[in-house]
Structures are given as C-alpha cells and as structure tokens.
Write a structure and sequence with these properties.
The complex is a heterodimer of chains A (419) and B (92).
Chain A (H helix, E strand, L loop, with lengths): L3 E6 L5 E2 L14 E5 L1 H7 L2 H5 L29 E3 L1 H7 L3 E6 L10 H15 L3 E5 L3 H13 L2 E7 L4 H8 L4 E5 L3 H15 L2 E2 L5 H6 L2 H10 L7 E5 L5 H14 L8 E7 L4 H8 L24 H11 L3 E4 L1 H15 L5 H15 L8 E6 L8 H4 L12 H10 L4 H7 L1
Parallel strand pairs in A: 5-13, 6-7, 6-9, 7-8, 10-11, 10-13, 11-12
Antiparallel strand pairs in A: 1-2, 1-3, 4-5
Chain B lengths: L2 E4 L13 E4 L4 H11 L3 H5 L10 E5 L2 E2 L15 E6 L6
Parallel strand pairs in B: 1-5
Antiparallel strand pairs in B: 1-2, 3-4, 3-5
The chains are: A alpha/beta (419), B alpha+beta (92).
Amino acid sequence: MSYVTNLKCRECGQEYPITPVHVCETCFGPLEVVYDYARIGKLLTRATIESRAKNLWRYRELLPVEGEPEMGPFSGFTPLLHARRLGAEVGLSKLYIKDDTVNHPTLSYKDRVVSVAITKAREFGFTTVSCASTGNLATAVAAHAARAGLRCYIFMPEGVESGKIVGSTIYGAQVITIRGNYDDVNRLCSEIADKYGWAFVNINLRPYYTEGAKTFGFEVAEQLGWRLPDHIVVPTAGGTILPKVAKAFKEFTQLGLVEGKFKIHCAQAAGSAPVIAALHKGTDLIVPVKPDTIAKSIAIGNPADGFYVLKAVRESGGWGEGASDAEIVDAIRLLARTEGIFAEPAGGTTLAVTLKLASAGRIKPDETVVVSITGNGYKTLEAVAGIIEQPVSIGARLAEFDALYERLPNGKRAVAGAA
Amino acid sequence: MAIRVRVPTPLRRFTAGVDEVTAGGVSVRAVIEDLEQRHPGMRERLLDDKGELRRFVNIYLNGEDIRFLQQLDSKVKDGDDISIVPAIAGGR
C-alpha cells in the first residue's frame, strides 16, 4: 500500500507519473515524489512506528515504494550516541553522534538510499542496476544488487580508495574506473543511462533514491525521544542528504510527530566547497570547482542539489564551513580517541565544522547538536595511514618490552605521573 | 562548420527523437542559436530569459564544463563535441 501520488518538478511544478525519470522535460529541474500527507497523517503514529522492526522501513509510509519492501531488512536504525567524552573535551554537553559507520551491509548512509532505489528498480522491472560513485555508493549498490540478483555496473573515478574498489568487485559487480573526476563520471553515466536504459540509482531513479536519505533524519528525531535537535551538521557533496534531513524533520512536524525548531548546517571539505563559497557570499549561484581533498567521498565540485542545500540551510537559520585536510584528520582522530568511532574523512569534515560553528558561537554549549557521521574509516585507511603513529616493533622477549615501557611517552612514566 | 551535439532525452522531442545532431557556430552561444534555427524550442530549454544558461543544465565542450572555460562565449571549432546534460544527477 503506497501513499505516493506522483512525481512533481521542484522548479516549475509540472507533474509526472511514477516512472524512472528524474528531470523535468520543461525546465530540467529535479523531480520529487509527492505523498498524500492527509492520509498518512490519519494512521501514522509514534506507537505504530515504535512497534515495527528496527530498520529504515519503519517509516515506510513516507518512502516511495509500492509493496512490501524486500531490500535492506537490516539497513538503517543505526545508533544515536550521546558523545559525553567528546562533548566534555570540546565544551558541548548535548553532543550526539548519528553513527552510520555501522549501517548494514556496507557501512555508510548509502545503504539507506540504495535499499529504496533497488526495491524501486525491481518494482519497475529493471534487470541491470548501476551508479556513478566516489565509492560508498558503489559498495552499497554492488551489495544490494547481489542480494537482489541483479546485474550491476559500477562507475568510479580513478584514484578512489582501494577498499571501495575491492569492496564493490567482491559482490560480483563489473567495476569500471574512469580517467577523470567524479563530475566526469557523472556526466558519462547520464549519457549511458540515456542510451542503455539501465537503472542508475542516482540518475534515473534519483527521485526515489534520495527519499531514502530522509530516514537518517527520521531516526535522529525518534531516537532523541521524538524531538528535533537544536542543531544538526550534515556533510555535503552532491547535496542529497542535507535537504532530505530537513525534509524529514518537516514531514514529522507536519504529521504532528514532533514539534520545535532546528538549524541545519552544511559541512564541506575546504578543497571541494562550492556550496560553502556560495553560502558565505550570500548568493544562489554555485560556481563549480575542481576538487582537491583527502575527503574523496565528498569530493564533488559540481553538486547537483547544491541549490537546495543552500535553501534548506538558509530557511532553517543554519550556517556552514569548510574544513582543511589537516582539520579533517584531526577530527577523525579526536572522534576515534574519545568515542571509539572511526569515521571516514567526510565524518572528520562534519565534526571539524561542528567545532568551528561552536567556537564561532553559532552552537551554544548546552544546545543539542547532532553530528552526522555518514561513512566508515575502515574503507578509507589511505587517508590517515601515512599520518598516524607507526607501531613499535620489538622481539618476543619480556626484557625488550620492559625497556620499551620505560621510554614510551605513554608508558610507565605517564602511568606513574597519573597515580 | 560542423559541431556534434549530444541531445539528452528531455530535449529529443525537438530533434524527432535523435540523440545526436550537428550544428554550426563560433561559440557555444552561436551553436545554441543555430540549434534553435534547426530545432525550434531548444533555446528556451537551455537559456533563461536573460540569455544565461539555466541552473539545471550543464554543457560540456569536448568533455569540459563550459563554466570552467569562457561560459557561453567559449570558442568552438569544426569537429568539436558538445554534450548537453541535465545537472540533476549523482550523489557519491
């Protein structure tokens, strides 16, 4: 049973039936799914949601699928952690981490959007699924396609982390690397989607795919005890997730499930920050850049939905900042050291930007702030491997360890000092 | 001068369903004007009423986004390839 009525152009309002199209024929604007909120409002309650399995489909009325969802039975409903040790160190008493480093099955927020997209691909009768990706999406599409028994083609720019190439090929997907950056890959895939008629999750299935990102926001609100955070900081690359988190909060508000206000803030790597540049300049015009950052998963210089990121941020009274590669690595280490969570560089970016917003006074010490950690550091070891301390090597003799313990900076002297 | 222009699905109703057409001109803007002569209705889809490229349209000249070149004034020559691609795509 679906509560979806049709697709509608966000720009000019033209309506389209539920088909695999993503661009308005009239103005090239993005198409978005329209729901019958009046009907949903009559039946969706907190109790109904709470009674369901802990996966992203507990919000199924607000997702664009027809039948019983088949994909992603363990995707979503990741932890929301009150980060007390990190919060104490940075002076934020209600700091929360929404931890999609442990999303199932491929350890990033992409398992949400792909669960929806592959379910939709099957409903439409596609037999081949594909995507343009910087890596996380690739692994998610490959894994879900394997489970769905669909053929899978993955397109990535050369130079993405090896974990993402291995982590896609292992599922039986055909991986093709493109000599160029993500924006080149994206352009090529738009042309391939047009010509071959495959289901590209982030191109012709994009209206459905992006709706899956709302579940990140739904979960935050539910896990905070059915309320909205004062602040949420979200990383921006192509601009999918940030506007959808804002939409999730608005839908919950409209349905009477939560109340209150939130500010949504945008985090970009300084080496790929076209949205932040436009935000700080006070313009709607996003000038594309050539990305140069270790945060490869968010290295998109020509963001499709950048305009809507700006809109969501400004409407909420939020702000945004860029983080340098050094700040990103420092934040990855800080999160790992204080909370035991190893984020990919996109997560480091988001935490680094959160700290900047706090020191600028935009986030107050006792306000509730959620840091969106959307991907896992084990996939991006290259980003930090050359920077962190190397292990110390000794022989398997107690005397060698005794000597070492005497001289290690965090060894005997540190323990004695603390005692 | 013959320049190859790749036409995306939303514009193919102006080209009788054809996905690649030829056009002439010394700049991207001139090529768009020529496309308008050959396939009336295309210009309005690509340019806004101020004559600037619409927000959700990307144009690539030999694979390079024209916003990294001289925008609509980018020079084109015989044998060049132009791709018109909807901007809305992607996401990591």
